[in-house]
Write a structure and sequence with these properties.
single chain, alpha+beta, 3 domains, 21 helices, about 25% strand
Length: about 575
């Protein structure tokens, strides 16, 4: 049975009246703080539904479970009815009813948040027919349920409208306007009926398109200038400037948001996938001194090439100049944080071998960091852990030639302390001429704090490759990283971007294939199928995941702009 909230969805799309057509964004009041627009909804829908991955997903048993649900069946029945009554399939209907664009506006406020939807059609006759059909369907269903006086008629600025539950809708020619807020709806209707020669285009389009690439399938704009006027926003930015951890991790991003008047984001179809581009009109030119942590000087490499040894699930390369923070700590850190770091320097330096101090190690640490998450080719131990984790690796490039020679004895000293606590055994290996120092947990002893044997995922180790430190959770991954660092790929052309990352769907699928039991159990319990069938379903899911390609991320902060791009490369 359809509930009132579900029925409201039909009323959101249509209403009655006649007038001029306009850019749907022009009907969104300036008070809207967030705007989401698609200038061609059909193009957006077909870009998604036309994907081979989308087509293949519909054949998965997991999809069929959703497709066969009561709600989905009812939705498809209603779609079929609209297609039959209006004499067109859904892509053509979408074009006729919203082919000139759709715009969604929102104003951040207390519940209920004022929202607005504007649809700009191409065929007024079809809009009128769809209006009548939508409200007849709603009223018939409400009557069947015994509801009375739920659908109400009203008028705004001379334009008749209809209210269903909390939502009101008015049609102005081929423009359909829907809102849960009477004031927002009235403002939108007045804009829709205004003489086009006198209308003022919404500032979102001109400001967003100043930064975004051309021809997005859909785009988002957020009025940060107005959002930041709230006390909560001001308190947030004040607090982050005092938070050392946030400054260390995302200080550059927060500062760009603090100075930017708006945020713009676009979704694009590319030859071999999709791109999401996010832009802020604020860059490094006005960074405070401490944020040199996140960006290199002009003309200096931001990030090194991400490492991609066999079996990689995720690879990450970032610029974080810890040396800059330590060297300039008196100017950059408050007394409490600086005092804590200097105390740590004294305490840790006491247990470090030789004359090197902890602070000196930080000063020698380079700004380039690379992280890898990868699958195991083989388990590190004969004894299997209760829960499986992938392997993790970290590579740091030294700033000073003394870095490698200084960090190795420091790590050995730290490992001795850990060995005493967890009874670790040191084992040394050699791979491609590089020594690896590893530490293994005993398999014949129980550990009260780890009854599930999680420790048997880990074989902590490190190696020095030239002036680079390699730390990994397994010897296997450490060997792969050594091989990768010695290949031409690792020393390839650097990038001005301060963060680069790559997620491999193939790697993720291989991890699921190695630990299928939770998915098999879920399929058996939730859908009541047999064990063999559940295994086949998981195999099909893994094969589908492998076809999804890679997702790459790149963050570049130049003088005037903050630019984040996510690219889904299908294969």
């Amino acid at each position: 049975m359809l509930r009132l909230s579900a029925l409201t969805g039909f009323a959101l799309l249509f209403a009655t009246s006649t007038a001029r057509a306009a850019d749907p964004l022009d009907c969104v009041p300036p008070s809207a703080q967030l705007v989401l627009v698609s200038d061609s909804p059909r193009k957006l829908a077909e870009a998604v539904t036309g994907l081979d991955a989308f087509q293949r997903a519909q054949k998965l048993p997991q999809y069929r479970a959703i497709y066969d649900s009561a709600g989905a069946k009812r939705a498809f029945q209603l779609l079929a009815m609209f297609e039959k009554e209006l004499g067109a399939k859904w892509p053509d209907l979408l074009d006729q009813l919203a082919g000139n664009g759709a715009a969604f506006g929102l104003q951040f406020a207390d519940d209920p948040t004022p929202v607005l939807l504007v649809l700009q059609g191409k065929n007024e006759d079809q809009v009128v027919k769809a209006t009548a059909l939508a409200f007849k369907t709603v009223e018939d269903e409400l009557t069947r349920q015994g509801a009375k006086d739920v659908v109400k008629r009203f008028e705004i600025a001379g334009q008749p409208g209809v209210q269903v539950g909390d939502f009101r809708t008015v049609r102005v020619g081929v423009t359909t306007i829907v809102s849960n807020n009477e004031a927002a709806l009235k403002a939108a209707v007045l804009l829709a009926t205004m003489d086009r020669a006198k209308s003022v285009p919404h500032k979102a389009r001109s400001t967003a398109f100043r930064l975004l690439p051309k021809d997005p399938l859909a785009w988002l704009w957020v009025d940060l200038a107005s959002v930041k006027q709230s006390k909560a926003s001001k308190d947030f930015f004040d607090a982050t400037r005092q938070d050392f951890l946030q400054t260390l991790v995302i200080g550059g991003t927060i500062d760009c948001v603090r100075r930017a008047d708006f945020l713009a984001m676009g979704v694009y179809k590319e030859t071999d996938g999709f791109r999401v581009a996010l832009r802020l009109p604020a860059g490094r030119d006005k960074f405070p001194p401490e944020f040199q942590l996140h960006v290199p000087p002009k003309g200096v490499t931001g990030t090194l090439a991400p490492l991609e040894p066999p079996g990689t699930i995720y690879s990450h390369s970032l610029h974080l100049d810890i040396s800059h923070l330590w060297t300039n700590r008196k100017a950059l850190l408050n007394d409490e944080i600086r005092g804590g770091l200097e105390k740590a320097d004294k305490d840790i330096s006491k247990i470090l071998p030789g004359s090197v101090k902890f602070g000196e190690l930080l000063a020698m640490w380079g700004p380039h960091h690379r992280i890898v998450v990868a699958n195991h080719d083989a388990s590190p131990y004969k004894k299997q852990p209760g829960s499986r984790f992938p392997a993790f690796g970290y590579v740091a490039t030294g700033r000073d030639p003394k870095f490698a020679k200084s960090v190795e004895p420091a790590l050995r000293s730290a490992a001795i302390i850990a060995s005493l606590q967890f009874d670790l055994k040191m084992v040394e290996h050699t791979h491609d001429g590089v020594g690896i120092v590893a530490y293994r947990f005993p398999e014949n002893k129980e550990l009260a704090d780890d009854p599930d044997g999680i420790r048997f995922n880990f074989e902590p180790c490190f190696a020095i490759v030239g002036n680079e430190l390699v730390v990994a959770t397994t010897v296997e991954l450490c060997k792969k990283l050594i091989t990768e660092l010695k290949s031409p790929r690792a020393s390839g052309k650097g990038s001005p971007a301060v963060i680069r990352g790559k997620f491999s769907a193939k790697g993720a699928a291989e991890f699921l294939a190695a630990v299928p039991d939770p998915l098999i159990t879920d399929a058996v319990l939730n859908r009541g199928i047999g064990l063999d069938q559940a295994r086949k379903e998981v195999t099909a899911l893994v094969a589908w995941l492998k076809s999804l390609g890679d997702v790459k991320a790149e963050l570049d902060i130049d003088d005037k702009q903050y630019k984040l791009d996510l690219v889904w490369e299908l294969k």
